[in-house]
Here is the input.
Amino acid sequence: MIYSLLLISIFDTKPSPTISQFTSWVLSLVMEIILLGASFALYTTEHREPTVDDPQGGHLEREMTEWEAVEVTLNVVRIICLIALSAFYMLFIYLQWRDQRKRRQSQATEEETSSLLGHDDDAENGMANGTANGSASGYGTTNGAPKPPKHDETPAGWEKPKNTPSRSWWEYIRGYSLFFPYLWPSKDRKLQIIVVISFVIMIIQRGVQVLVPYQAGVITDDLSEEGDSDGIPWSAICLYIVYRLLQGNNGLLGAVRSIIWVPVSQYSFRELSVASFEHVHSLSLEFHLGKKTGEVLSALGKGNAINNFLESVTFQVLPMLVDLCVAIAFFLIQFDAYYALVVAVITFWYIYLTIRMAQWRADIRRKMVNADREVDAVK
Here is the structure.
């Protein structure tokens, strides 16, 4: 699964492959060669085959067993694949460098063969009209020279983007930090206390998320024990019921957090609305002449969506990431590294597929929002 995820990331990255992928391939190739040499050195001499009950001992072997031969063969296959990937990257870089070199040579050839006075057609027309320099504006002017190619200029910040901008994770975090002052009520001490209490409740919820499945395991172990005169672990069951009442956003803790967060949400909405209103009124006259009132009012009305976004990121996305990390650490400490590896692989698969689906929906969502703003502009 890990190798398939890496393979998908290669096709998903543009341009691909990159120097980071090539570096990981080279490091993996070195480590695979070391593992192959160590395997040959161990399996070709006298050694004891490890078993489940005795990993350090077992049947004495003087040559490779079938499973050891399969392991060495897989090591060789991985080395061949890594060498092929590294060679493919170097070939890709060479072809890219050759195309850039040809493009530079063609541009230099065009500059050397271009007419000093302009295009030949303009020169012939100028001679036909009686001008000596081949153009109506004369020698030394730029009317006859070819116009430089137009480059796509960066659109203004107030223009509606047509496509989803390509941003890194660091840029997204910086963008979220811009809205954090509207989430933190710096002007009201009472609301600050409410925010602190809400975050404390969120931390307690993370602990309850771990205790619920753990307590279910405790009940299962108690019920499976033999020789118990009582037979029913009432205390463990009652504690499990308490944990279930506290668990999740719909539980007791989630309900309390939602109720006390209402004034903070109203504060954030009010501050965002005032900030957007002041921003629009501080724009130039050119902006207001080029926009319709309905479209501007529709853009101002999106402040509630930003408020919902901040609340979702704070109390849903971030806690979910914390829960995933806690689950991986819990399985690693309580059970085995293989359980933690399975949870980690499934977790990162889930995050990757979620991000890809969100990126796929982003362009469609943006078109819908732009169309909705155009409808408001017509109204």
Observations:
- The first helix runs from residue 2 to 12.
- The chain has a mean pLDDT of 75.
- Residues 183-260 form one domain.
